[in-house]
Amino acid sequence: MTLVAVLFWILAGFTALSALAVTFTTRIVRSAVWLLFTLAGTAGLFFLLGAEFLGAAQLLIYVGGTMVLVIFGVMLTASHPASSLQTNIAEWSLALSVGVLLYAVLCVVLFSVPAVTDAPEETSRSLLASKYLGSALLGNSSATPAAWLTGFPSEKPLPRTRVHYLLPFEIVSIHLLVVLVGAAYLARAKRRPETKP
Amino acid sequence: MNGELQAFFEQNGYSPQAAAVASGLALALLSAVMLLGLLFVNSIFFVWLERKVAGRIQDRLGPTRVGGKFGWLQTIADGIKLLFKEDLIPQKADGLLFRLAPYLTFAGVYAAFIALPFAQGWVAYGSASGALSIGVLFVLAMLSTEVFGILLAGYGSGSKWALFGGMREAAQMVSYEVPLALSVLVPVIATGSMDLGHIAREQQGWFWEWFLFRDPFTFLAFWVYFICAIASCKRAPFDLAEAESELVAGFHTEYSGIRWLFFFLAEYSAMFAVSGLAVILFFGGWHLGLPFWTFFATGPELSQVLAWPHPVLSLGNVVNALVFLLKCYLLVFVQMWIRWTLPRLRIDQVMMTCLKYLLPIACFLLLGISLWEVFLRSLVGPYCKATLATLVVGSLTITLIQIWRSPASQPPTLEVAVPWNPTRPPSIPQPKA
Predict the structure, then answer these.
(1) Phi first, then psi: what are they for B161, rounded to 5°?
(2) ipTM of this predicted complex?
(3) Which secondary-structure segment (H or E) carries A56?
(4) Residue A57 distance to chain B (closest CA, Å)
(5) How far is the C-alpha of B136 from the C-alpha of B130, rounded, in Å?
(6) B25 vs A: CB within 8 A
(7) Per-residue b/e over A131-143, b at no fewer than 16 CB within 10 Å?
């Protein structure tokens, strides 16, 4: 057992336990807190695998941003936040079937993708791993992220367009812009008919 | 370091695999304990400093009695009092979340120090050549998790005041994170790297190499960063989450004893963390800024000139770390100075400052630095650097001279008190009989 393996089992166990707690707790705010630990544990696994950019982005976006908004929404909307959630048998069966299907898909993918063998070495980690990702996002075709960043073996090139990651990057940006405009529209002050004196 | 420790463990009868695990664990524990000790001592010092600064600004003396002359044991006495204080959990509180919140708040800030280099190669995680390759993003991400603990404290307390404080904090943090991250991106674009060690090494040499003086965009980015950093530490004038005059104590109203202590450890550690990030991004990191030794020796870095007895644990690096700490303390002092000088903003003013002013300015700076790097830097870069450095240093010197010459800084002339003498003043005419 190397140190990395020990840390992996600790982190994976922590993540799995808090994921179970998300489903089994009946208070909605506590459930959100357990979800926070699940996401943080996943970020820890990313750090352990050497995908530091992904881990930090996960923390920044999910833990710092999304989860705060979730808690914020729950605190503002729930009439009795401390009351327990009741789930009936139909909801249980629906959730269980979706979960089993997702698990089956993951298993199929897991056993069909060849194992990544060119693991990161200690020297390549100092070579500014995020630089390749940034260049590829700007459409620079000479800078393709290494196999250990994307998870795809380098001898089998992906079917990419000539602009590389630029097109998906722009689509995501426009999507975020639409979300921002929508949020501003929803949160704007409702205009009331002006009362004349 | 790791290799040497591993060899040491192997000499003492460990198998190579066990030696690797043991040396990794030992290094991790060592850096964790050292960082924790630094944060505790810093917080003790900062609380004392905050009281002295507040006292001086309000024309008082601050603590004077405990521990001799300057009241320097006051914080330790308070800490011991807090350790023995009764620990209360309100009846309506959500016990689990109430207990969890202070530790979560502190853990987020503490984890930010994993990627913060204190000197050349002095970083908890990283190699000798550099820190974590995305150190800037990591520190920002860890500092952004701090808000979660505060939100939970606000919710878990089961109190109106705490809930209001937590919600204000969440609204403030979610909006101020955007200009904070955008202003941090400006020096990142200037260096082309997110590695904090690399960014600091780009600024070695004389002080005009610091990013504060590099170009107008990094200069303005520092002010945007510093305002957002004060807001993200929820200190005055942005301390709406714990507004004493409206919300009792905001999110920590219901806390006492050691849990309350953890909130304040987190606050003072966060002040130190954002100051450390500012020092590395804008103020040359651990570089002194006056490399006079280049006249005598060949190394550009102090750690290369005084490279004894170990390349990482060298004498020069100790000096570098002290320089870094001194710069951080100066910025922390500025934060305290601002806190005790400016009044608190209203929540709409806080939001307007962020969304109407800081966010557009940060976006403009981001565009500006990109254009500067592509077009203008090769043309006017050195002139701009010289102009900015001269202007800033010149105005600082003039200000200091003015303060030194002003009558307020002269020692006051004491008026000798005249003993009370109950005699009729001679000037009053005597009534005639």
Answers:
(1) -60, -45
(2) 0.75
(3) helix A52-58
(4) 7
(5) 13
(6) yes
(7) bbbbbbbebeeeb
